[in-house]
Write a sequence for this structure.
């Protein structure tokens, strides 16, 4: 006997969680697809976006300013990281890349902890999105509803950049074969820097728009990082549509399972990932040959 | 070279034995037989750890992760205690009257590592402290999973272990050890203290939804509290939402509660998990329609979620700083803590301070760091003054018999100072709240 009101509510929860995972994962997947670097500092960048936004919010009192400042700051940090550190690791083995990005993640988290402490920081939702909205089968936090729209809009913008602009075309070409792009006379290093910046910005943006839902703490990116890796594996490495699809699937699996027993929601997520790896090792929307 | 060290060690040990025996004999004429003349075989870090002019405490507290805020507060309490032991502070002497400057003439040092509230980390770090610093006592939980792991480790390594923060019944129940001592309150005492208050406030036959973190603390607290409410108030548990430690998004759990028909939410989550679940319960409109209850108080909760969300919430706790109006030692402690750290201590800091004050009392009472002698000093069960009045340790399970404080969240307009979040309703004496020492299967194990 399924409680349909509960089922619909959980389905909705899954949608919101899935959208968030999709946004963070899309940043992760385009970085990995283009640069070949698995960015373990991605969770830290997500957290950093939240804190940068919180600082901007504290000074300006405006949520919009917080979102813009949070995203741009993390993009800037992303570009700097790529220029100063990651660039030196393109030619090195993947283990080195993992270690250096893991280390960067620790540095970012502990720097934030040093300046802001361990007590959580709250960014309230913008006025007008506070409170609860009845949606037939349940009462739902208004901001979470809005978040669905905000993230959808961000994903559409990302889609347009990747699929409707010249830069996006180069980035996608870089994902397929960065050597060939280089041979065609395009400065791949600039492209790499740009991609890292955009990927980081997606994480930073997600971090600040999620802050009114889950208040900020230095460790906020840690658990989300694991989930986004699962999303990338399910969706297919380097695939932007795959990240979106994988995010939604992961969100729904976690939510629907928790209706029956929350203890199994992550088990089911990993079961799904294992199934994908067995049946379609390159992910649902990934392409054979991409690494 | 090793031979020299051994030779040196033996001679010093002899000297110490004699000295300890003299002190022990002088201060304990009828108690524990003077340890200096009894057999004191080397064990753990005895006697190497106390042969120099200092002894070391190893603390593994969570400084990262969901329990980091509480861990930092606890650590500050420990730091203040160490400072007070070394300076022979008046407050310290009120709890440990035989204390001079330093403990048995030795300065106390503190080494600290971050456990992240993970048992494996804590055990590894304490092992390092034993090897490198020859610690004579260890502390640090916040996470009963860590407490249980360090309990077993303490018994194996023969190093005294002061639990730190641990709310599970198992810590001094089925997982108790001879070498472990817990000072703070726990599931069963919290349940028996807050249960009557809840039934009186909300009435009989209510429906309760529980939110439980998925480890020994969560499960035992939920068990104790739900059993009390079911048995004495005819309440029913309509759902129990079990979440992993470190959960960020509680929407799925809260949705299940929204559809459960509950009147009351009993939130057993702790640390950041509690902050997030309380905030999100409000976002989903569950509170204030449903009443929120916190059976095991979380440091900084009201500060983090704002008093708007804790107003009218009942909670059981170990210490709240406004107890300074009732207990002279609490007044001294709060003043000293505030002077050093600039804010009023939470119960975690009080526990960190008190358990080392008690340790100083027991070591100075025993006149030696020899672990079995110190343990027997605790097991005498002498009553002594603390920041919450008179307390003592039970010999049978090494649990401190300690009052539980019932508090209720104040509305922002009723707060007299920025930290005045909770009103103390009751100080419930400890004896009546505790189970029989063997009811949870405690078998302490051997001294040596």
């Amino acid at each position: 006997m399924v409680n349909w009101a509960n089922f619909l509510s959980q389905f909705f929860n899954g949608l919101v969680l899935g959208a968030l995972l999709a946004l963070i994962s899309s940043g992760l997947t385009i970085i990995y697809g283009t640069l070949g670097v698995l960015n373990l500092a991605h969770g830290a960048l997500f957290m950093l976006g939240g804190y940068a936004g919180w600082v901007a919010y504290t000074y300006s009192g405006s949520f919009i300013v917080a979102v813009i400042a949070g995203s741009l700051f993390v993009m800037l940090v992303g570009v700097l990281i790529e220029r100063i550190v990651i660039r030196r690791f393109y030619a090195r083995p993947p283990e080195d890349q993992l270690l250096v990005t893991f280390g960067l993640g620790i540095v970012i988290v502990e720097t934030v902890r040093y300046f802001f402490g361990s007590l959580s920081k709250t960014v309230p939702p913008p006025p007008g999105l506070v409170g609860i909205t009845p949606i037939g089968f349940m009462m739902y936090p208004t901001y979470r509803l809005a978040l669905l729209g905000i993230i959808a809009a961000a994903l559409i913008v990302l889609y347009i950049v990747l699929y409707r602009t010249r830069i996006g075309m180069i980035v996608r070409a870089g994902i397929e074969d960065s050597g060939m792009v280089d041979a065609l006379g395009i400065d791949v290093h600039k492209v790499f820097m740009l991609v890292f910046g955009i990927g980081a910005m997606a994480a930073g943006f997600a971090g600040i728009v999620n802050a009114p839902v889950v208040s900020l703490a230095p460790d906020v990116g840690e658990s989300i990082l694991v989930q986004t890796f699962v999303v990338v594996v399910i969706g297919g490495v380097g695939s932007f549509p795959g990240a979106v699809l994988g995010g939604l699937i992961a969100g729904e699996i976690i939510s629907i399972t928790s209706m029956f027993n929350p203890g199994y929601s992550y088990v089911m997520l990993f079961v799904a990932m294992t199934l994908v790896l067995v049946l379609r090792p390159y992910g649902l929307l990934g392409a054979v040959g991409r690494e | 070279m090793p031979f020299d060290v051994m030779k040196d060690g033996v001679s010093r040990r002899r000297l110490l034995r004699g000295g300890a025996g003299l002190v022990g004999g002088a201060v304990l004429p009828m108690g524990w037989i003077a340890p200096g003349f009894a057999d004191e075989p080397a064990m753990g870090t005895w006697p190497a750890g106390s042969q120099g002019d200092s002894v070391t405490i190893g603390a593994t507290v969570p400084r990262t992760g969901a329990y980091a805020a509480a861990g930092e507060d606890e650590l500050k309490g420990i730091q203040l205690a160490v400072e007070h032991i070394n300076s022979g502070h008046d407050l310290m002497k009120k709890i440990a009257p035989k204390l001079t400057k330093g403990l048995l003439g030795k300065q106390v040092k503190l080494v600290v590592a971050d456990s992240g509230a993970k048992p494996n980390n804590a055990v590894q770090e304490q092992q390092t402290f034993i090897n490198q610093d020859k610690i004579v006592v260890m502390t640090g939980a916040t996470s009963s999973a860590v407490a249980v792991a360090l309990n077993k480790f303490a018994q194996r390594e023969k190093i005294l272990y002061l639990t730190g923060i641990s709310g599970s019944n198992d810590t001094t129940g089925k997982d108790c050890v001879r070498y472990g001592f817990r000072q703070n309150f726990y599931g069963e005492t919290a349940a028996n203290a807050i249960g009557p208050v809840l039934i009186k406030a909300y009435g009989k036959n209510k429906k309760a939804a529980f939110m439980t973190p998925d480890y020994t603390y969560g499960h035992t607290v939920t068990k104790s509290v739900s059993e009390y409410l079911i048995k004495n108030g005819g309440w029913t548990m309509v759902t129990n939402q079990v979440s992993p430690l470190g959960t960020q998004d509680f929407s799925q759990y809260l949705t299940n509660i929204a559809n459960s028909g509950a009147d009351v939410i009993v939130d057993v989550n702790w640390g950041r998990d509690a902050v997030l679940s309380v905030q999100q319960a409000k976002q989903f409109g569950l509170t204030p329609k449903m009443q929120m209850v916190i059976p095991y108080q979380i440091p900084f909760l009201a500060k983090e979620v704002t008093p708007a969300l804790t107003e009218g919430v009942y909670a059981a706790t170990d210490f709240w700083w406004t107890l300074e109006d009732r207990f002279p030692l609490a007044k001294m402690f709060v003043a000293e803590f505030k002077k050093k750290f600039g804010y009023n201590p939470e119960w975690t800091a009080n526990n960190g301070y008190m358990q080392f004050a008690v340790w100083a009392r027991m070591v100075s009472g025993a006149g030696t760091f020899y672990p079995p002698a110190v343990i027997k000093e605790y097991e005498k069960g002498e009553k002594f003054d603390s920041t919450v009045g008179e307390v003592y340790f039970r010999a049978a399970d090494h649990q401190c018999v300690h009052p539980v404080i019932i508090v209720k969240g104040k509305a922002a307009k009723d707060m007299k100072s920025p930290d005045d979040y909770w009103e103390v309703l009751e100080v419930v004496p400890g004896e009546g709240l505790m189970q029989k020492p063997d009811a949870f299967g405690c078998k302490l194990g051997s001294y040596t």
Confidence is low (pLDDT under 50) at residues 1-37 of chain B. The CA atoms of residues 13 and 100 of chain B lie 22 Å apart. Chain B has 14 helices and 15 strands. Residues 2-27 of chain B form the longest helix (26 residues).
